[in-house]
Amino acid sequence: MTKILIVDDEPALRFLIASSLEDEGYNLTEAASLHGGTVLRGNPACHGRGQKDPGGG
């Protein structure tokens, strides 16, 4: 089963995305922040969509 980590600070948006993906059979984990997501994922080097790259990207 495919695992997906959903990271967004808006609970309603996380709920909407999670509901749609759960209906498709995905195994989900949710986090309210990029920090929380990296802790859950165990990878402090990952970047999220909408986050500024420290290197200027």
Word description of this protein:
The chain is an alpha+beta fold and 57 residues long. β1 (3-7), α1 (11-23) and β2 form a beta-alpha-beta unit. It has two helices and two strands; from the N terminus they run βαβα. It has helices at 11-23, 34-41, and strands at residues 3-7, 27-31. It has a two-stranded parallel sheet. It has a domain at 3-41.
Can you lay out the helices and strands and say which pair or pack?
Layout: E1 3-7, H1 11-23, E2 27-31, H2 34-41
Parallel strand pairs: 1-2
Sheet bearing the most strands, described?
A: 2 strands, parallel
- Whole-Å distance between the termini? 33 Å
Number of strands: 2
Mind telling me the C-alpha Rg? 12 Å
Strand order of the largest sheet: 1-2
Name the features.
57 residues; alpha+beta; two-stranded parallel ribbon; 2 helices; 18% strand; flat
